[in-house]
Each structure stands twice: as C-alpha cells, then as structure tokens.
Amino acid sequence: MEKNMDKKIQASVPAKVILFGEHFVVYGKRALAAAINRRLVVEVSSRERSGYHVKIANIPTFGLEMDLELGQEEGKGKALLYKDYGAATKAIAYVKESIRYLEERYGIGRGGEGVEIEIKSEIPLSAGLGSSAATCVATIAALKEFFGVGGDLEGIRNDAHNIEKAVQGAASPVDTAISTYGGYVLVEKGEVKRLRLAELNLVVGCVGSIPLSIGMDTKKASEMGLKTKKIVEGVKTRKEIFTSIFDSIFAASDEITAQAIRAIEHRDFVKLGALMNINHGLLDAIGVVPRRLSELVKMSQESGALGAKVTGAGGLDEMGGVGSVLVLSGESVDRIKAVMEIAGALVMEVKTGGEGLKTITF
Ligand code: MEV
Prior knowledge:
Blueprint: E1 9-20, E2 31-46, E3 51-57, E4 66-70, H1 90-106, E5 114-121, H2 131-146, H3 153-168, H4 174-181, E6 184-188, E7 191-195, E8 201-207, H5 210-214, H6 218-225, H7 227-241, H8 243-265, H9 269-285, H10 291-302, E9 307-311, E10 323-328, H11 333-342, E11 346-351, E12 358-361
Parallel strand pairs: 3-5
Antiparallel strand pairs: 1-2, 1-12, 2-5, 2-6, 3-4, 6-7, 8-10, 8-11, 9-10
Helix pairs in contact: 1-2, 1-3, 2-3, 2-4, 3-4, 7-8, 8-9
This protein binds (R)-mevalonate.
The site of (R)-mevalonate has 14 residues, from helix 4 and helix 7.
C-alpha cells in the first residue's frame, strides 16, 4: 500500500434525478435515472493531528457549516472508535460509515493517520437528488485514492452501494450508479445498465425547509436523514395490504419506463411529458406525494409544463413535505420557475446526462 500522506485528492460526482420508476425499482421494476449538472466534491488531504477531521460546507437548503471530529480513543489498540454523533447530520452518517467500511474491508486508516475530509456540495439534502449516494461515492473514491488502494469504477460503485445500504437499511443501486458513471442508467431487476441518451433540459423544484422547520431539534434532524427509509417502509406496508392492486400499479410503472426510453430516443417530448404525469399519478397512488410536492406538480402542469412528477423518494407531510419535483417545461420554463419560486421552492434549471466520478490528485 502506498504511503504518500502529503497528497491531496479531490473526487467530484454528479447529483441524479430519477426520471421514471422510483420506488417501483425497489421491487425489481425498471427505473431510468440521469446525472444532472450539480456536483458534490470531497477533498481528502493529510493533517498533522491523527484521526479524521470532517468539514461540511455550503450545502444548499441546509444553511449550516460544521466541523466534526471523529476521534481516536487512546490506548484501545489500532481500531478507530468513533464518538457517537447520533444527532449529527445525514452527510456525516455516510462519511462515518465510509471510514468504518474502508477500515474493515481494506484495512486502511488503522495507522492513526491524520486525515482531513472536506465536503462541498451543490446538491440539496433530503431532496431526492442523490446527496447520500454522491457523498458515499466521492468519499470512498477520494479515501481509496488517498490510501493508495485506488480501484476501478465498479469497485467504487459497489463499496458506495454497500455503505448506503448499511446506513439506510435498504437502497436500490440507482443513485450510486449515477454518481459513479454519470450519463443515464437503467436499473432492472437490480441490474445496472448504462444507456446512451440525448441531453434533456429540466426544471427541478425542491421543498427544502429542513433546518428552518425543525430548528435545533437534533432528534428530528437525524430522523430526517432516514426519510427515504421511512417512505420506502410505508410503501412496503401498503403493498402488503393491497398486494394485487399494487402489483398492477407496479406493472404499469415498468411499462411507463420502457415507453419513456423510446420517447427520449425519438425526441417525442409530448409523449415523454404525458408519461411523467402518469408516473406521478402512480407515485401518488402508492402514497409518497406530500401536499407541497403535489402542489408544485399541479402548478407546473397548469402553467404549461409538458410533464411533471415527484422525483426520488418523494416526501411525507409530517416531515414538512421535503423533497423534489421534476418538470419538463417545454416553452413555459420562465413561467414555471416563477410559479414554483413564489410557492417557496428552491428552483434549478438542470441538464441531464453529465459526467460521472472524476478524481484528481494534487
Ligand atoms: C430514492 O432516490 C429512490 C427510491 O426508489 C429508493 C431506492 O431506489 O433505493 C425511493
């Protein structure tokens, strides 16, 4: 193993949007996801004091900067023992698990080296835009490079997926695949396939009032980190009660994803938009659309969007409806952006299909 601790590594990864099939993908149905031109960067460098030092800066909608120490207990052998930051942010949970995983899987980081990890992100948290997966992929890639165990993209994707599962309990490979490879990814029966499709211009509207609405309530803050887990569990419960009805809804979603890929290939945006609207209806039917996201979708549709839908895990009313919607705006982009902004959303124009993981060594 290489031991050049003076180097600095930067790993940059894209955010993602799920265009079609979120939730249904957890049960093996097809989902289509794309990278978007919003990125998260993890920088790893050496520092004089031993142990890991983590800094998270400028995450949109989170409005918080914090320094956390993952301490090393004196006199307890070589294993690192982490202080319990039960109430720490979601991002920190993924970084902690990444460090633990690398230590266990590759035996790296046990020498008590001083490691500085800094995360800079343009991806809003808990918005369904893949901030968790982006954190895992970039952290793993940067740390592996730093400790000289490098690794191919597939290995990094696999590590990051394991970490996401360990923190969340369950996760499909969609998000980590997009953060690693960029472009477009079709996931079917748990298999990841990379697709070559043309770029799309979309508008994303995020309801992201986490810190404002919960203030200093750190218990709620850590629950928010597990929002996806809670929503996925809710779908499972309802699926168990309404099995045959849900089976039909799931089959419909699978077909929507297949048709959507053809619509993108044929540049048939009217059809693509209509499929987004139907997909949104199915997500509402399985109970993952909170009022605030529902309103953003309706307002976009009324304002001339070709299609609009919730993207990612969706949201829960009792968690402030935090989450995102995806809009194929067509000609009405300015009007839709204005309407969503007036409704209090963070609005971003994005392009799909960007570059995946990029690692630079300084
Ligand atoms: C979360 O971005 C998407 C879900 O389908 C969960 C998953 O795929 O792991 C809700």
